[in-house]
Amino acid sequence: MTPGYNGPSMKIALIGSHGVGKTTLCFELAAALKRRNADLEMVREVARRCPLPINQETTVAAQEWILHTQIAWEIEATTDHEVVLCDRAVLDNYCYLVHSAGTMRAWEQFIDHWMKTYDVLVHVPISDRPSYDGVRAVDPGFQEQIDLLLEGMIAARALAPIRLEAEERDQWCETIVEDLLPHLEPTLPLFDEPEIL
Prior knowledge:
Elements: E1 10-15, H1 22-34, E2 40-43, H2 60-78, E3 83-87, H3 90-101, H4 105-115, E4 120-123, H5 140-156, E5 162-163, H6 172-180
Parallel strand pairs: 1-3, 1-4, 2-3, 4-5
Helix pairs in contact: 1-6, 2-3, 3-5
């Protein structure tokens, strides 16, 4: 860790509806950044740990638990690592609260405050219908409603995320790394280079 280090040099968050491939992409991106010598910590999706109902059956209490936990995990990750990669931001988690109970002024103000802590946002589009994974909803209509809410929140806050193209899913990781290149260390070799005699 850098001497005198007081926070991350970069906090990246993947945003999007459920079932769009954020978690898979998060692991791929984490591996790519580690190969570039990044001191990285990943904040995994919080909703999967929620002890209360989520998806269409969610409640204000469940979504507030998710938001508070997300923030706590991000704070913890940023204390010891120079790069923090988040599988979601508070913004897309907030979409589920709005879908369930409408906008809440206190949370709106805090979301605006907390969004300033992200250096890079990456919007992951819907490229396929959600499949059953034991946790997330599979209703494509619900998936699209969350995506529309998120798009509205992005526009209302004049955010400018890196936008991935649904038809270029195989290149998503490379697209993000290319955008981040000016901030990254040179790539580390995966294996020791053979000596030339």
